[in-house]
Amino acid sequence: MSEQPPRIPRVAKGERPQNFSDPAIDTLLGVVMSLVAELSVTRDRLETLERLLESRGVLAREAIEAHEMTAAEKAERAAGRAQYLERVLRAVRAEFEDLSGGRQARTVEEITADLAARKF
Amino acid sequence: MRQRFHEFLPRTSHDDVARQEFVKSLRGFLSSRVMPGNQAIFSQRVEPAFRAAQGRPPADRAEVRRLMTAEPYYRFWSAMQRRSQELMWESVILPTERELPDLVQRARALAAKPGPGSLRLDPQMPLPRYHTEQDIHIQPGGYHAEWTADDVSGGALYEAGLQMYMADAWGPEGAFLGELLLRYLRQRWPEFRPRRILDMGCAVGNSTLPWARAFPDAEVHAIDVAAPVLRHGHARARSLGVPVHFSQQNAEATDFEPGSFDLVVSHIMLHETSLVALPRIFRESQRLLRPGGLMLHMDIPRGDTPFRQFMHDWESYNNNEGFARFMTGLDLRGVALEGGWAPDSVEVARTVAGLNAAQKNYTDADYAFAIVVGQRP
Ligand SMILES: C[S@@+](CC[C@H](N)C(=O)[O-])C[C@H]1O[C@@H](n2cnc3c(N)ncnc32)[C@H](O)[C@@H]1O
């Protein structure tokens, strides 16, 4: 069999949306999100490794591949991942957090003006 | 390797699973933690500012769109939502591509068995342009592209993507929508016992199987325009031992006999068609039904306020669901009348699905599906 294995393209046919003023920002965000994803995969893998090392004291690649997550383990990981996302994507939510926490601040300019006018 | 509920799913490695679980977590985070911020920003800041300037609220979703797409918060959510969809497909393409030759072999072997069910393909059937212009929901190749002989990848990708799109809401077999519509039928017509059922736009038959299981004596047919999903669906149904007759046909005009079905259903097919196709699909459904037979076409919510409509329309601008936004505010009953239904025999009903925040993607409101319900006089 000298046939090439079939390949599925990674990119869909269709115009790609531009969300930011410069399309490079969209691309950059794409790269950043891939990094976030890959780091998450690495974290999961390390976690599997640690569990196995702990339980057996032996490291075998097949053991990682064969490792079946229990429902509880899966849930634990999902919770850990939710916290991980909360941390790495904090900046995205910042404005929403201002609004929901009643912690909207005045602008630096406004505060400076008040300070200069000795309002407080 | 991981467990699979039918022998016909691609096997996944440790990191494949980790990647897919990540995408689920990311989508859950975006839906429950970031997406609702758009509503907060709109109602607490954007709308009041607009009111102050114009003396009225934004009139419609187009106006909301103009305002919100200028907001950095919305832009970032939108870009990340798009990226999560791309990462979703990538996470299922990797194992599917690796296993594809084997999947094709397994599908062939299952198709070679005498039953249950059957598969009838029509390579001559023209694909509707609403499928070929853009890859719907940015699934590379859409439902229809073939990268190898007897390709099943479109189906394998759809089935795996389904699980992630709504954070496992669909259940392991992806039967959620079929079960939801079935429940609607049973509540409204508890005595109804169809003997022949047709599911239009069946893809891999994930919503078809609940019907076949609920009415084991019925002859169940399922059609789709795309061969890869049908091959996959046929092998999948066989692997699960459920008899379904799959055929490659356009729901706008099929080759079934008039009056030959008691029940015609579809699940989230309508928003992936067109304004030209819709009345034809309703007309064809009526033609296929015997007198007294029922038509139930169910589709996804489109929002009940300009803001929510704008949010649902996100998919049209960012997820290659070009037609979906035409469904927003569309008078589906009117379209059914255009398709030849009598005014007193057709209506639009709603059924609310209890979904959690992570599963709703674009809304924090009740997730109310629309059902075009017709009973042939
Ligand atoms: C979003 S999928 C829904 C699949 C499945 N019913 C479910 O509940 O998950 C829409 C399906 O409708 C099919 N479809 C779209 N237009 C069609 C048409 N005119 N005739 C038959 N199938 C069509 C597509 O190929 C696709 O498989």
The total of helices of chain B stands at 13
In angstroms, what separates the terminal alpha carbons of chain A?
A: 82 Å
* SSE topology string of chain B: HHHEHHHEHEHEEHEHHHHEE
Q: How many structurally independent domains of chain A?
A: 2
- Structure classification of chain A: mainly alpha
How large is the share of residues in beta strands of chain B? 5-15%
Average per-residue pLDDT of chain A, rounded, comes to: 81
How would you sum up this structure, described in words?
- The complex is a heterodimer of chains A (120) and B (377).
- Chain A is mostly helical.
- Chain A has 2 domains: 21-67; 69-120, no CATH class.
- Chain A has helices spanning 23-56, 61-66, 71-88, 90-101, 108-116.
- The termini of chain A are far apart.
- The model of chain A has no long low-confidence stretch (mean pLDDT 81).
- Chain B is α/β, with parallel strands linked by helices and 377 residues long.
- Chain B is 46% helix and 14% strand.
- Chain B has 13 helices and 8 strands.
- Chain B has an 8-stranded mixed beta sheet, sandwiched between helices.
- In chain B, strand 3 (219-224), helix 8 and strand 4 (245-248) form a beta-alpha-beta unit.
- In chain B, helix 1 packs antiparallel against helix 3 (72-112) and helix 3 (72-112) crosses helix 8.
- The model of chain B has no long low-confidence stretch (mean pLDDT 93).
- Chains A and B meet through helix 1, helix 2, helix 3 and helix 4 of A and helix 1 and helix 3 of B.
- The structure holds S-adenosylmethionine.
- S-adenosylmethionine (SAM) binds next to strand 3 of chain B.
